Every structure is written in structure tokens, then in C-alpha cells.
Amino acid sequence: MGDMDPHIFAVAEDAYKQMSRNDENQSLIISGESGAGKTASAKYAMRYFALVGGSLGDSSMEEKVLASSPIMEAFGNAKTTRNDNSSRFGKYVEICFSHEYRIVGATMKTYLLEKSRLTFQAKTERNYHIFYQLCASAALPEFQGLGLGGAESFHYTNQGQCTHLEATDDAADLESTRNAFSLLGVHESSQLELFSILASILHLGNIRLRAKDRHGESCFTEPDDEALGLFCTLLGVETSQVSRWLCYRKLVTASETYVKPMSRQQALNSRDALAKHIYGQLFKWIVSRINKALRASCRQQASIGILDIYGFETFTVNSFEQFCINYANEKLQQHFNLHVFKLEQEEYMKEEIPWTFIDFYDNQPCIDLIEAKLGILDLLNEECKMPKGSDASWAQKLYDRHLHHSPHFQKPKMSTDAFIVHHFAGKVEYQCGGFLEKNQDTVHAELIGLLRASKKSALLAELFPEEGDGSIALPSRRSHGSRVTVRPGRRSLPAPDKEHRKPISTQFKASLHKLMETLSSTAPHYVRCIKPNDRKRPFEFDAKRAVEQLRACGVLETIQISASGYPSRWTYVEFFSRYRALMRPEELMGGDERQTCRLVLERLLKDPSKYQCGKGKIFFRAGQVAFLEELRGRRLRAACVFIQKSLHCWLGRRRFLRMRAAAICLQRFSRGFLARRLARRLRRTSAALTLQKNFKMALARRSYLRTQAAAVTIQAFARGMFARRLHRQMVASQKAVVIQSAVRGWLARTKYLRVRRSVVYLQCCCRRMRARRELRRLRVEARSVEHYKQLNKGMEIKVMQLQCKVDEQARENRSLSEQLSALRASHSEEVERLRSELRGLREDKAQETRIRELQEQLQRVESEKSSSEGRLGREMEELKQRLTELEAMKSNLKEEKDALNQRIMEQSQELEDQLRRRVAAESQELLCQLEGERARYQSLVKECARLEQCCENLQDEVAFHKRTPSLQRSPSSDSILDSECSYPSSLSTAPSRDDADQQSESPSQPLDQERGRWRQRHGWRRIRSDSPPSSLDDDDGQDPYEKAYLLLLGQLNVVTEDLARTREELRRAKVQLAHERKPFEIFKRRNIAEILGLNKSPEKMTEEDSMMEEDLKYAYDAVRVSNKLLESQLQEQQQQHEQELESLRLDVCSLRQLSTQQQSRIQDLQLRQGEDGLQPQIVQLKRENLDLAGQLDTRGKNLLKLRKQLKTSVKQIQDLTASREAQLLEQKVKVEEMERPLDDAFEGMLGCKAEDEGRLIRTIITDFKPQHSPGAVPGLPAYVLFMCFRHADASHDEHRIHSLFTAAVSGIKRVVKKHSEDFDVVALWLANTCCLINCLRQYGGDQSYRLANTPKQNQHCLRNFDLASHCQSLGDLAIQIYQQLIRVAQKQLKPMIVAAMLESETIQGLSARPPGYRKQPAAPAYTLDSLLQQLSSFHEALERHQLEPVVVGQAFRQLLFTVSGVALNYLLLRRDACSWSQGVQLRYNVSQLEEWLRAKGLQQSGAMEVLRPLIQAAQLLQVKKTTEEDAEAICCLCTALSTPQIMKILRAYTPAAGLEERVRPSFISSVENRLADRTPAGPRQLLVDTAHLFPVHLPFSCSPMQLDELRIPDSVNLTFLTRL
What we know:
about 5% strand, flat
């Protein structure tokens, strides 16, 4: 094919051969003007490679490679004035080949999609093909819900007035596009989501924007706009938000956020920018899906790249896109010149070949004009950075810089906003308008935030992923003024895609440089496409136009070089190795390879002008290499013939020798076979005679044995029949007796069970009746506030009792173990004594028997002397036998004794283990119950605090609603109604001093009084509602704010009742648990010796053992039944608690729905007012409302006057009573001072008058700052408050204690709320609250807290009142402050976690990123040192205020849990973060955190355990992932990670390029199967819940501070207090 005329297949074949021959990457650079056929040539080249290369697997990779073309043409090609299928983007397709040079995959890179074509097309031009394909297929069933129509009905497709093309079927093209998507693995649902987004872009272009006023400074969208509704429906976004942010934009400054309206033209530009951004993201997603489908299945050996990029363009109006396109063509032309002209001629000169230089056009000055420093692109980027940069100022800078300095830059004669660039293909005039906007490519973050918030489409979530931790804030609308100041609670950071983004020109320049580097690293092959004419007519050739293109492309100079140059070249080594077969032996004997090559060339090529010998290479004219190849082929062919001849001779001789050896072998085997057959016949004859003899003998013996067996069988059956007959007679009489006894017993048991069931039923009825009465009584009691206080009062005491019980059980265990050891010692002594006695008895018995035998022997000797010798011998033998029997008996007794001792030891050990396990299990269960109850209680406290905040917000809203005179709501109130139960703090005003005093007293009042007061206010509103109703009221005439407040108040009452009920049920369960455990306690306290039977005789040991086992079994059954009963009761209580929480959630949801309904009603009413034109009625209603408001104000003033009078009277009465009490107290104090010794001048009490309470609260709480009071001890406010409590206790003034406590709690809440973002202030008041709780406990009435007190501290204890009931309220307040402290710290830490733990490079040398890792523009904002510094500042603040170490440890455990959760979630969500180097970096950072914990002494606080998932994730990234042993090691290693987390990390793991391989799917499935077998030890979700809060425990700590030694600095200014 290479000898044929120029063809695209010939170039492709040449590239494929060079790749397979030289093992080098190749590239096809297809260039030419627009419409010259570049895209078609690229498709033909891809077809050739798909046909020649084929595919290794069954996935039809070549079909997938070809299937990418119709998709990219549909989404990236469009009709222009010069081409009906013009590529509006550049692409570089790299086809990957294996070591066998088969296609294994492909990748695609795109460059500069022309997004402006989406929103504007010139006349006779069209938009991208995909939109016309969708409109042509609008009648398909799956497209019915997209609202599509003809292309003429859409603004984005009808601007060029060319919706149809001849010889083009858009519906058929869409079908081929969908088939290509399916072939590439895109699911049908994803395709429908893709087409839905495309349809929404068309509807977005049809949204109508109208100006509000004559000046056009603001605009609006029509509420009934059909296109707007279809756009919002297809994308799942709110219509109101879209219509708002199309007309407004948000400006974020350093301190404030502004919402500014936009003019109609600005709104249109914002709409078009949104459409272009959506289409650009969609185009990138399609390219990524194609690359994913074409990913190489195995390692690639080489590749061939095909560059199909836009050609040189010049239109009537040329803008930013044409400038970038022509700039790319300049770079390609420079690459062509460098490769063809410069390098070629430089190589000739380098090798010193005679050569005459050929002149060619060098476009480097034009490229310097564009991309050099202070060039066109540099000035464009500089102008984009200017605050007030414009296209006109940029054009003026171009004129000043390049007009008289560059010959390639010119200025048009009749224009001041255009410039001319002299390209290699001609001059092009560019219009400056729109350059800055297209270069910046700005889209407003508010619209992007709406798209991110949509949950309708999964594809939309992939196109617009979440950026950062926060979401985009949507501020409120306001109708008055063009600029609105909003005070958000938390500033939302600007989206990264809006600011801090590189311009388009910079991105395009970088991608173009990368493309040039890629092309330079490959062997290029050029395809120059020539456009025959400019009229797009077939079979018409314009010679002049073709010559211009050839001259501009440098083809004429290329032909000249090819004609006069040396296209083929070999190095001396390559020539020597290639053509060694053509050399003679004497030529090969020479040592100089260069001289040998010259001699061979002189002999083979007679004409010296056909070749040239350079320094390192040999250059050949065209055709000479082919001649040498032909000579080489002839020589190799002759050698092959000689080799074949020799091989055939060798094969024939070997075949003959094999046949001869086979014949000899056959003869030998046949003769042996005949001999063996004769011998076998002789042996068979002898064996037959032997078999006949033995067979006859066997038949005779079998007949005899059969007869004998029959006789024996008959005898056996006869004897059995007689025996069975006798047995049946005996059994019949016995079974009758058994049946009678069983029937009589069953009748007696039935009667007893019937009577017992009746009695039990009567008992149940009676007990149920009593229980109902008791339940009603308890419900009435539970509703009272005093009962709630009593429950809270005994809660902590019960917890301490439980802890004391656990300690008591531990002490009992120790005492039982000591008793057991003592019993073992006594038992061993008793056994030794019994052994000695048994040994003595055996010796005495043996001696007595010996004497008796000797006497008998003497008598026999005297009577019978003749037979004495024989008898003596027999007696000696009998004695020996007896002796052996005694020895055996002794050994048996010893074994029995050892076995008995072993059994006793085993039973005692088992019993001890059982007791230890039961006690440990019960202790663990009690601790778990206590921890769970503490967590539930703290969650209820948090919910109560939230409801109180909602109540305060609703009160502020009601007050604001009362102050509003008219019924017409402003847009600000609409924005308030928009939010769901979250009311901004900017609307609530700070309370006055009187209000503060009232608020300080309000928490002590019952909830019923609060409800009655609001009912009274509701009565005043009913008086107002007697007037003609307004249009904004509901059907029942009740204010929605008041209804919401009453609903929240009811929910608060329900929560408090549920809390009291839960505490009461917990108390009952614990009492019942203690009652059920009494049998087990009695069993534990029994005498161990009596149970084991150690003091019994050996004869009774077996009976006692059996009885002991039965007792143990019964006791164990009783304990098991009681445990089951308690577990069922706890489960029922837990279910009831969960149901109550669910009902609370439903109530909150109903309140939110009510708020949304009110908002919708107000909006509908406003719309109806605008449509019907009810201006007169509105004016009349306003007047009536003003009158009613005036009446209401007068009545309110009267009410305030009456309240003030009532307050003054109440204060006068209180002052009188207080003065009397003060006089009595002063008299009493004087008497005590007279009786007190002179040394005890100060008793640690501070007297505070009633009128000084507000001043005291302001001094030590509201305005207290430790840095302004040097020398003040930590916890000074708590000590001062407690000393005031002591004075009130000594004065028997309970009211003073209650009011002071209430004011202090309210003051602390106000300070914490005011400084909610200040970590130091929150830590200060958490420490003071804990200190006050410890003081109330240490000096209270509970003796368990006073064990560590000194005698003087015991003298300072409270005498008259027990303030332990207030500890519960302070504990709730401390829990709320602790939670606020954690929230403040988390808010400061969360922006630092990802940057410090994952993005900062604390280990140098690990900066190499895996392929596909996103490129960071600069160093991370936070490092690990900054994170540790922040944690150290938190620790220093807590230590400075001397917070309890246990609480400090719990706080840092929670913070490090947040650090671990956020880092692990980021690692799971970012694929490019899962690599080996990232694992090493992460493990080092975690080790730094552990080192910091050990340095601060927090290693025992549980913070190490919360870091385990992050540590195991880092280790998982570092371990090997290849064999089954690795899978088992991963399963054993990752115990703190859930199965989804492990699978996610393994699937997202990115190996280092050239060092590792990807994790195989078989390995991942093996790990998943192993993980499925293990018991789940943690949560099963993928992401860590970073909002989870561990329950906090506030321990008691005895203070060593002596109250009488406390020194209060003068800077605190507490001179108004009296020291007593």
C-alpha cells in the first residue's frame, strides 16, 4: 500500500509498521482548513487501526473505539458557513496496543469546546447536532415528559434560521448516538437523564426576562412562564429560587454580603452563562465516560495518537474562539516546520552532507506575538484581573504595545475595537467585544448552588459535586432599595468555581503545550487535508485555492526537500546488522564497521550519487533502500532453500532408522508372545484338576453345615416361644397397675391446675385494679413540678448508690476469694492428718493378725510336728498374697483420695469462676445501662434547649409582629417565613435590665402559668378579632405565630413529662433489679465450706455433691429468669422512649408544614391582590387596621401601666418583708458575733441584699473577664455565688437562694449565648458551672461527698437547706455549655482537617501524585502544625480555667473523633486520595497526633481509640493487595473499619505509575467474602457520622480551697457585698 498514491490508509499503515518495527509511539497529525475533511480522515484512520489491530478480548474494543465518533460528533460538531459538520473542539485519540500489537484500549483528550455557539449562532449556522436530533425525535414515548417540540420553537436552535440540513436524518442520527452510548456501557436511565438535562438547556433559553422600570436597572421573570416551569421540573429545583437568582446576584465582601439586582441584559448574560456551564460540564462527563469504557484492560506496549483538531478559520465576525483555534493551528504549523524543515536540514549539516538550504516560512514571531510575555494572551489575562477591565481598554493596550513593534499585528482603518493578526494562512480581523467575558467564563455561584441542591438526578449530582463543607447560602429578598445588607450567622465561602480560577486562555495554552510535548515524544505522520473549493460543491476543483493552501501549509517546500534530499537513513551499526547477509567473508573479517559499510555500498550501488556517508549515518536517495531490501531478500531466500534441503535429508534418514528399529522390536515381541502362550496353557491344565477336587469337597461340607444350622434354629425358636409366652403373662398384670396410678395422678393434677389458674386470674384482676389506681395516682403526681424536682433530686444519689453497690460486690468477691483460700489451707491440713491416722491404723491391724497367726502355728507345731514344714510354706505364701492385697488397697485408697481432692479443687474453681463472671457481667450491664441512660438524658436536655430557643425566637417574632402596624408583609418577613423554624438573631433585640430580671425569674415559674399568660394574650387578640377580619387571618382567626408558640410550648411540656416518666421508670426498674438480685446475693453470702462439703465425712460427700449441684442449678435458673424479666422491661422502656421521640419529630414536622402553608397562603394572597387590582379594599383595610392597632396600643399601654403598678406594689411588699428579715438577721448576726471568738473573723459567707442581685450578676457573670482581674483564683464566680448561698442558708432565706440561683443560671445562659463563638468564654463558664456543682455537692447534705473534707470545710457546710435539688439544673446547664464548646471547636477545626491531614506534605519526597490526581494551584492553607497549634490553644484554654481533667479528656476525644471522621470521609469520597504515598503521609500525621496526646497526657482519655479507623485506613493503603494471605491479613487488620469502607478504599486505590498494579477484582471479591463471614463489630454505613456526640460525664472533685481563705481582688469590685 505504501507504493500507491497518497491515501489515508497508506499513512496509517506506515505508522503501524514503524510502531511494530521500532517499538516506538506514533502520531497522526491531521490538519487543514475548516471543511477540508479532517474529521472524516480521522474516522478512516481509526477504522484501519481497528481492522488491523483487532482486539484481544471478547469486549469488541475496536467497535467501542469506532462508537465514540458518532457521540463526539453529535455533542461537539455543528454547521458553520464553511462546513456542515465542523468540529467545534479539538480531540486527540490515543489508541493503545499490547505487546502483540493488538488494540487493548484507547483514551481521548479534548481541547476548547466552543461553548458560545450554544447561545448564539450566526445566520445560516446551527447549534450542536444533538439538539436538532432531540427535537426531531420529540414524538418518542420516552421523550414525552421533556416538553420538546420543533427546533423552530427554541431560541437556542433558531437563531441561524437553519434547522434542517439536506441529506441529513436527525432522528436516525439520534438512534445511532443512543446505540453508541449503549455499546460504551452507558445505561438507558443515564441516557434519559442526559437527554433531560439537554432539554432543560433548551427551555432555559426560552425563559423571558422583562425590565421592571424604564431605566432597566432591574428585571423580573413572569410567574406563569412555561419554560421556567419545565426547566425547574426537569432539574428538580425550586421555581422561586431560580426566578430570583436569575434576576439578582450576591456580592460577598470582607464583612458583609450584598444582594444586588441585575439589569435585563446582565440577567440574559447570566442565563446564557448558566446554559454554557451546564453543557460544558455535560461534555466533560461524556468524555470521561468514553475514556472509562475505552480504558486499557492490560498493560500497553505502544500507542498511536490521532489528532483531529479544528482547522484554520476566518469568518465575517471573528471572536475569542476563532483566535484560540488559529493560535492552535499556528502551534501545529510550527511543529510541522520544526520536524520537516529545521530538523531535516540541521541533520544534513550535522552529518556534513553537501546541502543547499531551502527557504521556508517560520511563524515563530507570530506565536511570540500571541503567547510571549506582554503578548496578546498575557495582556488579556492582565485585563481580566483589573477591577474595571473592559474590551476597549484591552484593545487600547494592544495598540500601544504591538502596533508599531510587531509586523504581524495591525489595526483596522475604520475600527477602534478590533485588531488584525497576520497568520501563516492569511490575515484575520478579530473583534474585541466579548473577549474578557469569554476568557473569564464566569457563572454565578447561586445558580450552581441550586443545581447542587437538586436531588432528582444522579447525573446532575455527578456534574455538580459538593464543594467544601458548607453549602451556598441563599439570603432573603427585599423589595425596597437596590442593595440589601444581610447579616448571616455564618458566612458562606465563595464557591471555588466562581473565583480563584484560571482563565480559559491560560488553560488552553497549558493544554496546547502538553499536546506539543506529546507530539514531540512520538514519531509524527502528517496528513494535509486540502479544501477543493469554498462553495461546498462536489467534483469542483479550484486550483488557485488549492495552491494557496499548499503554499500556506509548507507542502511545496516539503516536496522540494523530498526531491533533493535523502529520505532514508541508517546508522552504521544498523546498516551492518541489517545487511550482514550481503557482505562477503573477507569484508566481515575487517575490524572497522564504517569501512566495511563503504566497501559494501561501493560494490552494491554503482552510482555514488545515490547515497552519502556522514559521520554517524548513511543517507540514501529515494528507492535505494528498496533495492537493498530486494538484494537482501534474494540472499535470504537462497539460504532458506539450502536449509530446507539439508533438513529434508535429515528427516528422511531419521524416518528410515525408526522403521528398521520398529521391525526388529516387533519380531522380538511376537516370539516372546508365542512362548508365553504355551506356558500359560500348561499351567491352566494343572490348575483345573486342583479346582475340581476342592469344589467337590466344598459342596459336601456346605450340605452338612446347612442341615446342622436348621436343627439349631428350630430348637432356638421353640425355646423362645415358650419364654415369651411366660413374659407376656407377667407383664400384663404389672401394666394394669401402672395405668391406674397414671390416670389417678393425671386427674388430681388437672383439678389442681384448674384451681390454681382460677386463683391466679383473681389475683391478676385485683393487682391490675390496684395498678391502675396507682398509675392514675402516679400520673397526677408526675405532672406536678415538685415531683419533677424530687425525681431530679434523687437521680444522682441513685447513680452513686449503684456505683457503691458495684464496689460492694467487688469487695464481696475479694472476701469470698480469701475465704476460699483459707478453706483450701484447712482442707489440706485435715487431709494430712487423716493420712497419718490411716497409716497408723493399718500398721496396728497388720501386727495383730501376725501375732494371731504365729500362735496358731505354734499350736500346730506342738500337735503335728511331722507336717509343720509344709504348712509353714503355705502360710508364708498366704501372707505374701495378703500383703500384696493390702498394698493394692492402699494404692486404690490413695488414688480415690487424689481424685476426690482434684474434684473438690475443680468444683471450687468452677464456682469461683461462675461467681466472678456473674458479678462482672452484672457490673458491666449496670455500667452500660448507666451510660445509655446518661446519653438519652443528655439528648433530651439538648432537645429541651432547642425547644426553649425556638420558644424565645417565637416570642421575638410575636413581638415583631405586634410592632408591625399594617398587614402587608415585607419581603423580609417572607424570607423569615421561608426558613424552617430557624429565626435569625438580627430581628431579636437585646432585653433591658427589667426584662433581664423578669427573664431571670421566669424559669422558676410553672409551665401552666406560662400557658395561662399566653391564653390571656390570646383573649386580648380575640377582642381585636371582633372587628372585620383581615384577609391575612386564618379561618379560626388565630395568629400563626401564636399558634406555633403554643404548639412548641405543648411540645416542651410533653418532653418534660416524658423525661420525668422515664426517670421514674428507670428508678422502678433499678429497685426491681435490686429486689430480683436478693436471692443471688443470699446465695453468694452462704458459707462456701457448707456448700462444698469440706467439713463432712467422706461417706456423705457424694450425697452432698449431688445436693449442691441441684442447688446451683436452681439458683442459676432463678437468676436467669430475673435477668430475662429485667431485659424485657428495659426493652419496653426503650421502645416507649423511641416512640415518644418519634412523636416529637412528627410534631416538629407538622409545625414546619404549618409554616410553609402560611407562607404559601401569604404569597397566593399577594398574587391575587396584584392580579385582581383590589387597591380600594386594601386601602380601606389598612385604615381599619391602623385604627385597630391604635386601640390595641392604647390598651397595651394601659396594661403596661397596670403591670408597673402591680410590680411597684409587689416590690414594696417584698422590700418591707426583706427589711424586716434583714433587721432580724442583723440582730442574729450581732448576737453570733458577740458569742464568736475573736480569731474567727471571717466565716466564708458573703451577704447580698435583694436590690444588689442584678449588680452581683453583672459583676461576676455578665461583665466578668479573668484577664482584667489579675490574681483571681480560677472559679472565682462559682465560689462567690456559693458563699452568697451560704449566707442565705444561714439566714433561713429560701426565697433568696431560689432567686439568686435563677438569676445566676439566666445570666450564664445569656453570656454563653452572647459569646457563643468565643471558645475561651464558653470554657470559662463550663469550668465555673462544674466548680459550682462540686461546691454544692461538697458542702451539701450527702455524706458520701464529704469524706475528703477537712474539719474546717465541714464547718462551712450548709445547715438549713439542701441545695442538691439544684445540681440537676446546673448539670443540664453544664451539658449544654459542653455541647456549645464542642460545636465552637469543631467549627474552627473542620476547615483545617482535610488540608492538614491529607493535603499538606509533612514528609518531603512523597509529593509525587498518582495519575489522575487533581493539580493543586498552591500549597494548602493549613498544615499539620497549624492543626496541632489549634489543639494546643484549646488545651491551654481549658487548663488555664482548671477544668476537670476527665472533662478535658472527653472533649479532646470528641474533637479527635471529628478529625478522624472528616479525614476518613474525605478519603472515601476522593478517588485520587487513595494511594500508597497518601497512606504513608496519613499514618505519619496520625502518629504526630498520638505523640501530641502523649505529650499532653491525654493518652488514657479514649482519644487513641477514635483514631483507630483512620490508622487502619492508612495501613490498608500501604499493605500488599495481591495474594490470599494479603486478603486474610487485611481482614484481621481492619477491625475498626466497616465492610463498605474497606471495599470503597480497595476499589478507589490508585497505584503508583510504573511501580504497582491496580487491585484485581478477584482480590476485592475475596476480601469481601472474608469480611461477610466475620461478625460486624461496628456500623455498616460508608461514611462516618461526624455530628455524633459522645455522652459526657461530669465527675465530682473535692476542692481543697478553704472558703475563709479565699481572697477576692479589688479589681472585681465586690465592695457592695458584706463579708461575714
